[in-house]
């Protein structure tokens, strides 16, 4: 399952290791991961505007570069090499430097690019590759082995169960959790003619699209970074796609095309990193992610299971949670919701209870496993 840009808000993940000492409460760094939900989509500009700006899709460049080590780094941040992953790592660095003046000197924080299994295998849909942590395993291994000090992930990529010896001491403020509809010829999915092909590597998005618009087709192996997918769209490989609005905002690409939570992890025995990261925690996001992950854990979700979960604070200050499971072909969709105090224990209980309800309603074989 994925914490998608539409629901389980995306959050940067930072992991660390600590020395034996009182546990550090996990916190969430930016809402980079959210389980996908059918929240209102953000549409691309009008057709005329899209046509005028078609070339801008392919010309977008990542304004990030990995600096060379010029001195011994105090903190080594591990991340993937995509423009979005780098943008999230640089955001994490900037927040650390804003909170801790001793980290502002050049070279104090070094960003290390690590290639993951998901980055290496691009010829297959993620569900066909199988396994857990396709975009996190190698980074977490580098963390556990002491090659890096913290790991920055999107929450949607983080497995339900954290690797041993790692902890999540913080979550950043959650970004916009909606999906952005991108198309050169239509303003929404409803306007696409029958037979149109929508590209997405997300089973959650696929099932929701097919459930509501069965006349459309979905290209599952529509993978690559944001720029690659926009290039494929412009080249006519698909007629439309859905992208996380949070990611587009982090790449400063919303102007042309019309968030999720980031998780930061560290080793459980690294009190120094835990302290640094705890200073970045956004408590509201941390609690929302805890509720969503309790839901996911109960359902034992994976990249083969279309699941969506989204927790947020309502106008009265309570937690409102919505959960969804769907069959991969979109023919069956089950939804539920919960409301209760915006308190850790209550929110975890809500997530688990919602998951148990949907498990019972779905019955064996619902996901086609």
UniProtKB/TrEMBL annotation:
Which sequence ranges are marked TM in the entry?
none
State the needed cofactors, names only.
dipyrromethane
Alphabetized PROSITE patterns for the sequence: PORPHOBILINOGEN_DEAM
Q: Which residues form the Porphobilinogen deaminase N-terminal domain?
A: 75-257
Q: Which InterPro entries match?
A: HemC (IPR000860), Porphobilin_deaminase_cofac_BS (IPR022419), Porphobilin_deaminase_N (IPR022417), Porphobilinogen_deaminase_C (IPR022418), Porphobilinogen_deaminase_C_sf (IPR036803)
Q: Does the keyword Plastid apply?
A: yes
Query: Cross-referenced Gene3D superfamilies, in alphabetical order?
Result: Periplasmic binding protein-like II (3.40.190.10), Porphobilinogen deaminase, C-terminal domain (3.30.160.40)
Q: Does the keyword Glycoprotein apply?
A: no
Q: Which GO terms describe its biological process?
A: chlorophyll biosynthetic process; heme biosynthetic process
Q: What keywords does the record list, in alphabetical order?
A: Chlorophyll biosynthesis, Chloroplast, Plastid, Porphyrin biosynthesis, Transferase
Copy the pathway line from the protein's UniProt record: Porphyrin-containing compound metabolism; chlorophyll biosynthesis; Porphyrin-containing compound metabolism; protoporphyrin-IX biosynthesis; coproporphyrinogen-III from 5-aminolevulinate: step 2/4
- Compartments reported by the entry: Plastid, Chloroplast
Q: Pfam families from the entry?
A: Porphobil_deam, Porphobil_deamC
Tell me which residues make up the Porphobilinogen deaminase C-terminal domain.
287-359
- NCBIfam families xrefs: hemC
Which family, according to the similarity comment?
Belongs to the HMBS family.
Q: What does this protein do?
A: Tetrapolymerization of the monopyrrole PBG into the hydroxymethylbilane pre-uroporphyrinogen in several discrete steps.
* Protein name according to UniProt: Porphobilinogen deaminase, chloroplastic
Native species? Brassica carinata
